[in-house]
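seq:
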Amino acid sequence: MVNYKSEVVWFNDLARQVMGGAFSQIAPRTEERSVFRLLLLAEDAATVANRDALLRLNIALAKERMELAAITQPLQPIATAKLQVLERLYGETAPLAAGPIVEFPMRLKEARGSRSEDYCAYAAHFREGILVILMPLKDDANALLQLLSRRDMVIRNLLSKRLPTLTELAVLVADLQDSVKICSELPPEEYFELINQIWSGAGAVFRKYYGTHGKHVGDGMVYYFFPQPDCSYIVNAVVCAQELRTVMAKLSKAWQLRKKWTNELYLNTGLNEGQEWLGTFQTATTVEFAVLGETINHTARLSDFARYGAVWATKNFIGKIPAGDRSRIRFGIHRPGQEGQSIFVESTYSRVANLVDLSTGRHEKLKDIAGLSVTEIVDVTTS
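struct:
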């Protein structure tokens, strides 16, 4: 299985046996798991004999979203002659249109000898990546296609075996403000209805910007944004947070009309970025992505710090946004003026310790991020 940056995230034992040189030692860093890098560097007889065919297959799967420059970016240490082969095949290979299951005919050779056999590669597209299965053309594929049609079961099983990776990512944590108060004011069935409406409306926005659901200990949200071949994962997180505010404003108005109350519904949001280990936690029925490290912990605290639907981000997060995209984002710090009024100073940051009194009960848990440099994102101009 490869993700949408053509990085290997899983393979079975038979793939290891057939292409041992390519899949024998998978590096922990995502950029070193490029399937093109693995195929070009492998020197075992099986991979060498079928290198062009396997490259064509993966180019056909990647070409819909990846330009040649994006494919070759992690391949700099590879010899020029091999890169030229990749460039030639890229020009000769047509992209495979994305679909639930697509087929790609190919001929594979024996590692040693002149015998070859016709195969069909079946590629099943999931939100998490592309599962590729090679099957001899002479075999009956009906059982395989029936299995792939059970998409939820297949992806849950695959994710449970996903290889832990060290990856760059952006993290978004959002919590419903005053959720305990709202829960106490609503009948249980209405509170669950409200939470489900929030998740339903937010879920569509997260899918739009390639957010991946993570584990949260309460009724809040944790989503991860990973590097994409055709867009900035940092910008995806920012615009996603902005659209979540729009979703919540509409939902808040609907519940005010319904309940005749003055409560405002707010999702308080924290944004951060870093390089962390990504893996999965699994039970008998579910698989959840989990990130280890300070990035997620600091983001959760930043969400605790935010109030009234504000979006707060770390200085490091803003610094990772490309300059052209950063000009679309209005961010800064509200500072006291000479007459006590609040003045918004754009494009500035502050330590958390300088924004709140950490000795008060509500803010004591923010001591973990006291020295963190942060800013408030107040608006995003969409292009």
